[in-house]
UniProtKB/TrEMBL annotation:
Region Disordered, annotated ranges: 436-459, 513-560
Pfam families given in the database record: Phage_portal_3
Biased composition (Polar residues): 448-459
InterPro entries the record matches: Acb1-like_N, Phage-assoc_HI1409
Protein known as: Phage-associated protein, family (Modular protein)
Anti-CBASS protein Acb1-like N-terminal domain location: 47-397
Biased composition (Basic residues): 548-560
């Protein structure tokens, strides 16, 4: 009983001050604020007029759809190269990217759009069975906006899956373009919604989405009003006034005095210039009034930022505005491109997969391989410096993996060609080159110590430049010619190229065993015999370090 007799206690979920009338629940102007629907998505004529006359609406609608379809895709799975080329050429031949662009564009403008998969010889009201598609029967896509079709809300999809509860059929209501009044099965359609709405709100839009114009309409009118107002203020920026005694009487009486006054004003307009002169009565007063409109640009910039935030497109893309201050705009574009990539994955990947399957069956009479994959080409355009850096790192990484025995030459060449769109190198590698790579010699790291040197030096470290490789070859050649002890040559390799002694021994191979130094001093021609592994005579000059004014060419010119 005590529980039932408890009095309700006031809650304090937000700040309020009744005496100062501060807070949403107090009687003030702010508390009267609310949100009401404007149903802009239902007003087709208003949306179309805005799209035609407002460049901001046009840019907001077109930018995302253009960017989602601008760069296309690349097939990353291993399929026959000819099949890859045929599929890629069909996108251009049937204008599939253009039609996909229009479907996404009208879905953003109207709140929804469809793409009809055109299969020759099949009734549109029947379910699309991919295995029945004949060769050459796929004819492309037909864009249809939400006002051209009407979903049959009495026939629902009852099969458990991603389409459960959606309309099973769509009826074409606008036949003005010569399209028959077909009843189309949902399996033959690709559907895109605008701004996705919750269930109750979607019912009010005939189960379509919402136009992007609806969310920005109030911000857009504020921006256009401010812009038009600023244009009108330009006419008031410089005013000239002329005071005349008893002007009202002259106007009221009219006649010759009024005509003389008007003639006088015309003369002032005609002769008032840099070289002219203004003639006026002694008692008349002529004044100019100049106005400056400070802060107006900041107001317009704030309205522009609100529109940019509402549509999710940065200022540099939506308005073509140059970055200001220390900002380069790259961060804004990077975030925007990430958003485009997300929409491509969520909204465009599955429709493209269906299209590619239909295209593959139409051209080759068989379904796509189970491991078929593709990726969207990146929108971000790298600078030449970034591209060259990535290319260098890619080549070095592939060379390292190749020399380390982690991959073969065929795989390395294939990966290099796949990265050609990013790095700019490797696109000229043909399939024949890759197939022939299997017959080429393995890299140096796969050879044994006895095979690593046969009297001629083989490049060991792909990160060395040409001069370093030449000097390394010269050291090995000098040891082989008996001009340097083997141990000295190995020590030079270790010190100069930051490698361990094992690697230096592998490079040197069997060169220098039984070292016999050639005499460079004295009168005799007999060589001085030094045991293998011996050290050079202290303070004995070499050909490069010997005294003399002129530079001596010799085996150690690598030390210059």
């Amino acid at each position: 009983m005590a529980k039932n007799n408890r009095k309700p206690q006031p809650t304090a979920d937000s700040y309020e001050n009744m005496m100062a009338r501060v807070g949403m629940q107090t009687p003030n102007q702010h508390s009267a604020s609310t949100y009401k629907p404007n149903w802009t998505s239902r007003n087709r004529m208003l949306i179309e007029n805005a799209y035609r006359s407002s460049w901001i609406i046009g840019a907001a609608v077109d930018s995302v759809s253009d960017d989602m379809t601008r760069k296309g895709i690349r097939i990353t799975s291993e399929i026959d190269p000819k099949a890859r080329g045929v599929l890629e050429s069909m996108f251009d031949e049937l204008e599939l990217w253009e039609n996909l662009n229009n479907i996404i564009k009208w879905s953003r403008l109207y709140g929804g759009a469809l793409g009809l998969i055109l299969i020759e010889g099949q009734a549109p009201f029947t379910p699309l069975r991919p295995e029945t598609i004949g060769q050459g029967k796929f004819k492309g896509l037909l864009p249809l906006d939400r006002w051209q079709v009407n979903p049959d809300l009495n026939r629902r999809i009852k099969v458990i899956g991603k389409d459960l509860g959606k309309p099973e059929f769509y009826n074409i209501t606008n036949t003005g373009r010569g399209i028959p009044a077909w009843k189309i099965h949902h399996s033959r359609l690709i559907r895109f919604d605008g701004v996705t709405l919750p269930y109750q709100q979607a019912q009010t839009e005939n189960e379509w989405g919402m136009s992007i114009v609806e969310r920005i309409f109030d911000r857009l009118t504020a921006f256009d009003s401010a812009t038009t107002g600023a244009a009108q203020l330009v006419y008031k920026a410089h005013l000239r006034t002329y005071s005349i005694d008893k002007l009202r009487e002259i106007i009221a009486l009219g006649g010759a005095k009024l005509d003389a006054l008007l003639k006088h004003m015309d003369m002032i307009r005609q002769f008032q210039s840099n070289e002219g002169m203004t003639l006026m009565d002694k008692n008349d007063v002529f004044e100019t009034h100049t106005y400056t409109f400070s802060g107006l640009d900041k107001v317009l910039a704030q309205f522009a930022e609100q529109i940019s935030g509402a549509v999710g497109i940065p200022l540099v893309r939506l308005f073509g505005q140059s970055p200001q201050g220390f900002s380069t705009g790259d961060a804004d574009l990077a975030n925007y491109y990430d958003n485009i990539g997300t929409q491509q994955e969520r909204r465009l990947r599955q429709p493209l997969r269906r299209l590619l399957d239909v295209m593959h069956r139409s051209e080759f009479g068989q379904e796509l391989p189970e491991d078929f994959t593709f990726e969207f080409n990146p929108l971000w355009q790298m600078s030449d410096l970034d591209r060259s850096t990535i290319a260098m790192n890619t080549v070095n990484a592939l060379n390292g993996a190749l020399d380390g025995g982690m991959m073969n030459l065929k795989a390395a060449m294939n990966d290099l060609r796949e990265m050609a769109d990013v790095t700019g190198i490797g696109s000229s590698i043909s399939d024949e080159d890759i197939n022939n790579a299997e017959n080429e010699a393995p890299p140096l790291s796969e050879l044994g110590p006895s095979q690593s040197n046969t009297g001629e030096f083989t490049e060991s470290n792909t990160n060395l430049n040409g001069a370093q490789i030449s000097s390394m070859v010269e050291i090995v050649s000098s040891v082989a010619a008996g001009e340097l002890p083997r141990d000295t040559g190995i020590q030079m390799l270790v010190t100069s190229y930051h490698m361990d002694s094992t690697e230096a021994e592998r490079i040197m191979g069997s060169v220098g065993d039984g070292f016999t130094a050639k005499s460079t001093e004295g009168s005799g021609d007999d060589p001085q015999t030094v045991p293998a592994g011996g050290k050079p005579i202290p303070n004995q000059s070499t050909k490069d370090s010997a005294g003399g004014r002129k530079h001596r060419q010799g085996i150690l010119r690598w030390f210059k």
